[in-house]
Amino acid sequence: MACQAPLYPTWDHKTENRTYLCGNSRQSSGQCRRRPIPAELLETHVLNHLSTFVGSVEAWIGDVLGERKTEALARRTALDASKAALAALDRQRDKLYAEYERLIAEDSPLATLAR
Ligand SMILES: [Zn+2]
Fold first, then answer.
1. Cα(80) to centroid of ligand 1, in Å?
2. Where are the domains of the chain?
3. Do 20 and 43 meet the contact criterion of CB atoms below 8 Å apart?
4. Which residues keep their CB under 5 angstroms from ion ligand 1?
5. pTM of the full predicted structure?
């Protein structure tokens, strides 16, 4: 099990190898005996993981955009239905008002009841 200390890039002048070494090993604190990790090996793993991560972020953004579109469409549909209901009420009010005007014009006693 690793000691969880941060890793530091190192350069071995003798072998000309780049490696990563944990902070405890680097300071020879005795808390960790992990050997250096070859830089190419570690970086390949990190980059592979990064591409997987970026891929899942892209999919996630796509999902969020899809949800937003669905929500926007539902709101648009509800708004259209409310506008249609309002238009129907307007037409009904116009008809009732026209009927009321007709009753007044005829001096109908019903006109006072309709007020
Ligand atoms: Zn360590």
1. 63
2. 1-35
3. no
4. 3, 5, 22, 24, 32, 34
5. 0.45
